[in-house]
Specification:
The chain is built from seven helices and eleven strands. By secondary structure, it is α/β, with parallel strands linked by helices. It has a single domain, classed as Rossmann fold. Strand 8 and strand 9 form a beta hairpin. It is globular. Bound molecules: S-adenosylmethionine. The site of S-adenosylmethionine has 23 residues, from helix 1, helix 3 and strand 2.
């Protein structure tokens, strides 16, 4: 598919109301169960830190971090997502929301953030290398970039469960791993989102070529507590949905 970031972001805008309905103060279920515990253990103490939430969506992560004392800037390309983010943010939280494309953050000065977080956004960008360069530019020296993506080895175009006729999940299949580019994925009731697949090699090489030092990589798994509360997450012990990077400028 020859399709770019603008069309991908336009679809996010149309999907924003449904997306916001599925997100509470801890995000959605996958974020509460799998992503938040990993993100917060990698992020550590944020008190008084200047932090950018790149692709903040309806802003649940910005709010959780601001509640811990971070000075948060949230950027998103969808005006409707930003409307939700603003309306959900109480006055006492220090969060400045901006409309912008992560591939062109020219409204943000160099070397100003101690931490950039980006939760489930980078696979939505046609030009992820440019976004890595922009994040690198706005981070101060020794600053961290922590981001989660769909796991590129398991979530590929045409991946999914192979099931018995009765619907039991036999195994997860992947295909077209070496395809790099856009593909459509039905996410909401009516909307097909555009995602961009690239290989693990491409992600790692792009980070290294940008100048980042890869410090830690995590494939989130459900904890015992999560499995007690939500037994259906047992299937996340069979293959990984997400990959989280902690890299340093
Ligand atoms: C899966 S949502 C994640 C939102 C939020 N980080 C969260 O965890 O709930 C992806 C978000 O990225 C935004 N987005 C997609 N492409 C973008 C771009 N080029 N620049 C800024 N935001 C973008 C979308 O508008 C959407 O809000």
């Amino acid at each position: 598919m020859n399709i770019g970031t603008t069309e991908a972001a336009a679809r996010w805008d149309r999907f924003a109301d449904e997306y916001a309905r599925n997100h509470g103060e801890m995000g959605d279920l996958h974020k509460e169960a799998l992503l938040n515990p990993v993100l917060f253990s990698l992020i550590g103490d944020v008190s008084r830190k200047k932090l950018l939430d790149a692709g903040c969506g309806e802003g649940y992560l910005s709010r959780l971090l601001a509640r811990q004392g971070a000075l948060v800037t949230g950027v998103d390309y969808s005006p409707r997502m930003l409307e939700h983010a603003k309306s959900r943010t109480p006055n006492e939280l220090v969060i400045g929301y901006h409309h912008g494309n992560l591939e062109e953050l020219d409204f943000l000065e160099n070397d100003q953030f101690q931490l950039v977080v980006s939760n489930m956004v980078i696979q939505d960008l046609a030009n992820y290398e440019k976004a890595f360069q922009e994040v690198y530019r706005v981070l101060e020296k020794d600053g961290y970039f922590i981001f989660s993506i769909l796991h590129p080895c398991f979530v590929t175009p045409n991946s999914g469960w192979v099931k018995t006729e009765e619907g039991a999940k036999l195994y997860w299949k992947t295909d077209r791993y070496f395809y790099e580019g856009a593909y459509e994925q039905r996410i909401g009731e009516e909307e097909k989102m555009i995602l961009f697949h690239r290989t693990l090699t491409s992600y790692i090489n792009a980070l290294v070529q940008t100048g980042f030092l890869i410090e830690e990589v995590v494939e989130p798994k459900p904890s015992e507590e999560v499995l007690m509360k939500y037994p259906s997450f047992g299937e996340d012990l069979r293959c990984a949905d997400f990959l989280v990077f902690k890299v340093k400028k």
